[in-house]
Design brief:
The complex is a heterodimer. Chain A is an all-alpha fold. Residues 1-7 of chain A have low confidence and may be disordered. Chain A has helices spanning 16-27, 31-53, 56-73, 83-101, 103-108, 115-125, 131-138, 142-153, 158-165, 169-188. By secondary structure, chain B is mainly α. The longest helix of chain B has 29 residues, at 54-82. The radius of gyration of chain B is 27 Å and the shape is elongated. Classes of the chains: A mainly alpha, B mainly alpha. At the A-B interface, helix 2, helix 3, helix 6, helix 7 and helix 8 of A face helix 1 and helix 2 of B.
Chain lengths: 189, 185
């Protein structure tokens, strides 16, 4: 079940060369260039953060943390992937760090009733989405949800997800397989 | 459509359908508020100003604030003493309505600002150099803030825009050289 080559997620609505130029300037510590990168990418990062955290406040925090971390680590970015892919990886890694450090919050949001606030925010921020699917995704456990969002919603390949999460390829495939099964169970209820 | 699904041979038709629907969910969402100011503040705090140890930094900020306050108050008092005409006198009749009162307030504050600067200029002697430096810094910040507000009030005002740009350039070039990288906002 090896996936075919898939084009990387669209870089930004702007021209890719403009993004490259902005990245070069931001790496040289030009905060105005970094602000422009923020303006280009914050919508995608917030959407990802919202699905990962399932909470508007946490999603805002994660978005901020991800961009601050990106600023700090941008000099180490060598352009092996697109800036968007790299930024998604930063976001996911910050999320995983936060999740490990804040288990109590994760436990609080375990029940379906707690998802009502999240779904209201989803409806506000992405009015064209399917709430039934969003609810089903949100009901998945952390690992399965993260892998499924990156694979099925964001369109990354197994290898890219494995690199982002720092996990073995087999682990990612197993997580996505499990997530698919759980998702079908939720949707068939 | 997610073309990698074509290679997932173990997918049932239902799974294939659900994954295809996931693939077209929106990938962008708009936060309820602009998050950039918080990001910018954290970046500036982390990198832009080569922060001193917390206790020392707090002490310096408090000292600067107290010095600026004293200088401003002294300037206002001196301005009133040396210039007995009340600053708001040129527009006493305009103080009746809200908008005109706001305009009169701007004029009064402007007069006090100039008077305070004149008072600062009169300081002499080596003992006042730090106070003058801090006063100038506060004055430039006030001037920048005023020009910024003026450009918002009247975007086509070339004079205000020129002041804003000049002060911004002056302030950025006046940053002390150091190991910390420059952050421009």
């Amino acid at each position: 079940m090896e996936p075919a080559a898939r084009p990387e997620p669209p870089e930004t609505p702007a021209m890719p060369e403009i993004t490259e130029l902005l990245v070069v300037r931001a790496r040289a510590r030009d905060a105005r260039a970094f602000e422009e990168l923020y303006r280009q990418h914050h919508g995608r990062i917030y959407a990802l953060a919202l699905r990962l955290t399932r909470d508007a406040t946490r999603a805002e925090e994660l978005t901020q943390d991800a961009f601050v971390r990106a600023w700090e680590t941008l000099p180490a970015f060598r352009g092996d992937s697109s800036f968007a892919t790299w930024l998604h990886g930063v976001t996911v890694r910050v999320f995983l760090e936060r999740s490990r450090a804040d288990r109590k919050w994760e436990e609080r949001i375990a029940t379906a009733e707690d998802l009502s606030g999240y779904l209201m925010e989803v409806q506000r921020a992405m009015p064209e989405t399917s709430l039934a699917l969003e609810r089903a995704i949100a009901s998945l456990p952390d690992g399965a949800r993260t892998a499924l969002v990156l694979y099925a919603v964001e369109g990354y390949r197994y290898e890219e997800i494995a690199r982002m999460l720092g996990l073995a390829l087999g682990t990612i495939k197993a997580q996505i397989h499990r997530a698919r099964r759980l998702l079908m169970e939720v949707l068939q209820k | 459509m997610n073309d990698k699904l074509d290679h997932d041979t173990d997918l049932s038709p239902e799974e294939r359908d659900v994954l295809a629907r996931l693939g077209v969910l929106p990938r962008e969402a708009r936060p309820a508020r602009d998050l950039w100011p918080m990001v910018a503040a954290r970046i500036a705090a982390d990198r832009g100003f080569a922060p001193l140890p917390r206790r020392r930094r707090l002490g310096r900020v408090l000292t600067q604030f107290a010095a600026a306050l004293v200088i401003f108050a002294a300037g206002v008092l001196a301005g009133r003493q040396w210039n007995p005409r009340p600053a708001a006198e040129p527009v006493p009749a305009l103080a009746q309505s809200g908008s005109l009162a706001a305009a009169a307030e701007v004029q009064r504050a402007g007069s006090e600002y100039v008077a305070a600067l004149a008072s600062l200029r009169r300081l002499e002697g080596p003992g006042h150099s730090l106070a003058k430096e801090q006063g100038c810094e506060a004055a430039m910040s006030t001037l920048y803030g005023a020009a910024h507000e003026l450009t918002r009030l009247s975007p086509d005002d070339q004079g205000a825009r020129q002041i804003l740009q000049t002060v911004a350039v002056t302030r950025s070039t006046a940053q002390p050289a150091g190991p910390a990288p420059t952050v421009r906002f």
